[in-house]
Amino acid sequence: MDDAPTQNTTNRTTAFTRLGIGLAQGIAMFLLQKADESKAWPATQPMLYAPLLVCALMVPMIPLAALSAMRRRALIAWSLIAAALAAILAVHAAWTGAAPERYGAGPLSPPLFIAVAALLFIAHHLVQPAEAVRKPVAPYDHYFDLVGTNAVRLFLSLAFTGAFWLLLFLAGALFKLIGVNAIQKLIGETAFAFPATGLMFAAAVHMAVQLTEARAGLVRGVRTVALVLLAWLLPLMVVIAAGFLASLPFTGLAPLWGTKAAAALLLSAAAALIILINAAYQDGIEPPHLILRWAARLAGLLLIPIVILTGYALHLRIDQYGLTPDRVLACAYLVVAAGFTVGYTLAALKPGVWMKPLEPTNLIMAAISVLLLIALFTPIADPARLSVNSQVKRLEAGKVAPDKFDFQFLRFESGRYGRNALERLVKSGNPDIAERADKARLLTAKASATPGGPDIAVMQVYPSGKTLPDSFRNQDWTKNDSGSVCGYAGMRCSALMLDVDGDGVDEVLLTNGAMLDVMKLTGGQWLKVADASSSCEGVDLDAALKSGPAQLVEPEARRDLMLGGQRLILRPAAKGCGVAPTPSPR
How many CB atoms are located within 10 Å of the residue 323 CB? Predict the structure, then answer.
């Protein structure tokens, strides 16, 4: 008889605690936003502001979700560890992106917030079940059930918070119709928006927790139905993957490499197989239909050639062009896919309980994913650091010519690592590298869709020995619109010096690789007077310029079409294009 009042008191305490956490989070976010907006402390100290912002945004989710599920001491300890991890990643991001003109959240990029959210979500669902059973590893169905339940709770909480704001906007619009603007002004104030959002989200989490605990069977039933429906896509995906792999001996790898996205597509196929295998397995207590059981075994085996092809594609691309941030991330995804492949292959081949090795595989790969996220967003395996080291090494080894090297990547796209590399390259013993690095170091803006002129410092001029006229090099491209696709700030284009009109003076033909713009000095300004393009698709004009000298030839006989007083040029269809070289894989 005494249990009910005690339970009600506990529920009230838990509810008020959650509301307090949500309100405190909202107030903290408001204060941080105001500091950023007004350029006040702590926004003026990115190394302090970044961890405060990331922790205030992300870490409260842990006590909100686990307040009634974990022991208080364990919850506090785990929350502090989570805050430390989030702070480390945020400090590194701020240090990497920090610059004199960047303050507040400026040095932080969206991937950081996604990474911290993913890291805490995965780690939390490894910690809470283990803490509940007081063991390092809990039964697999505990992990499965918690992930599914919390996913439902998160969806309900976000939906409730979104509905709350929709109603506020509706109220503001309705009252504005009768001349009352107070509600619209209120919801437009960040002093109200942040605390109200934090408070309502916390209330939604509490109600979602109460609902899912009271209707646990219903939640499991809905989840099971959704996963069973999803699992029946597994046989289709097995047929698709098997058909694709069976076609390769007949088509060869050239069409795959020709997509220039081979690794990304293959990793997507591997991810689809992994997700659908888990949809069929669920918590592993009850085996699914016989068709799904065999499809899961085949899918586990099909992962082997897919992951091998992915690794080969990445190897070729990195060997040819070096590392980039995208390729570093692809390598991380490949490590995860390879781990799942090993475990799922063993599960498919091992006799006994159906696919039982899948359970430890999922837990191990979840832990590895957490470690990879930490490595990728710290100096251990920062994609920018690894990419800068790789590209600079290729430049200094002569694998890429200075005029073709992307110095703007170092200046604008690789944070502190790139800027430090530029400072070192300025002192290079190669005068060409040193000059181009110095010019890139002084750039204030990357190539953009605003007039500003091509990047003369890295422009390749053909034929060899020709130089650009001083009037072209010194032209103020912001004064007038030149009409050229290469007339935008920082564009990387090549130039061909050729007397097109036969007046004895060379014109400058600018190309971005796809078409040529004929630039002529007219009234003291270099303006576009004509353009040229090939009728063949996929022609690389930069490669064509390197292949041999350019020459003018007589045009083929043709007639134009007069239509309504307008002259229409009849362009011949593509012919004699030949076979383009086989692209290398991405």
Answer: 22
Q: What is the 3-state secondary structure (H, E, C) of 209-243?
A: HHHHHHCHHHHHHHHHHHHHHHHCCHHHHHHHHHH
CB count, 10 Å around CB of 4?
A: 8
Give the CA angle between residues 170, 172, 178 to the nearest 5°: 110
Sequence-ordered strand ranges (E) for 307-382: none
Q: Is the peptide bond prior to 463 cis by the omega test (within 30 degrees of 0)?
A: yes
Burial label, 484 (beta-carbon count in 10 A; 0-12, 13-18, 19+):
buried
Q: What does the block give as tokens for 62? A: 């842990």
pLDDT of residue 277: 98
| DSSP three-state, residue 446 | coil
Give the start-end residues of each E strand in 460-504.
461-462, 494-498
* d(C-alpha 586, C-alpha 441), whole Å: 29
For 428-500, strand residue ranges (E) read 461-462, 494-498
Beta strands in 476-549 (DSSP E): 494-498, 507-511, 516-522, 525-532
Range 273-276 contact pairs with CB under 8 angstroms and sequence separation of 24 or more: 273/234, 273/237, 273/238, 273/241, 273/299, 273/302, 273/303, 273/306, 274/303, 274/337, 274/340, 274/344, 275/230, 276/230, 276/231, 276/233, 276/234, 276/237
| Residues 416, 441 contacting (CB under 8 angstroms) | no
Predicted model pTM: 0.77
Cα–Cα distance for residue pair 68/153, rounded to 1 Å: 14
Q: How far apart are CA 30 and CA 193, in angstroms?
A: 8
Distance CA 77, CA 75 (A): 5
Q: CB-based contacts of 554: which residues, under 8 Å, 6+ apart? A: none
Return the structure tokens found at 211: 């609902």
Buried b or exposed e, range 345-370, using 16+ CB within 10 angstroms = bbbbeeeeebbebbbebbbebbeebb
Tens digit of each residue's pLDDT (9 = 90 or more) over 163-195: 999 999 999 999 999 999 999 999 999 999 999
H or E element at residue 376: helix 358-376
Q: Quote the tokens at residue 476.
A: 């103020």
Q: Tell me which residue of 54, 40, 127, 48 sits closest to 85, measured CA to CA.
A: 54
Whether the Cβ atoms of residue 296 and residue 560 lie closer than 8 Å to each other = no
Look at residue 56 in the predicted model and tell me its pLDDT: 97
- Tell me the two tokens of residue 517: 């713009």
Joined together, the tokens standing for residue 274 give 């992994």
Residue 507 is given by DSSP the state: E
For the chain, count helices (H), then strands (E): 21, 7
| Phi, psi (deg, nearest 5) at residue 21 | -65, -45
| Three-class SS state of 563 | strand
Helices assigned H by DSSP within 178-189: 182-187
The DSSP bridge partners found for residue 28 are none
The whole-number pLDDT of residue 473 equals: 84
Mention every residue, 6+ apart, whose C-beta is less than 8 A from residue 21.
60, 63, 64, 67, 202
Ranges in the chain, pLDDT < 70: 1-6, 98-106, 443-452, 458, 479-482, 485, 488-491, 514, 534-539, 571-586
Q: Which helix (H) or strand (E) holds 373?
A: helix 358-376
In angstroms, the CA 485 to CA 549 distance is 23
What are the tokens at 445? Answer: 């803006």
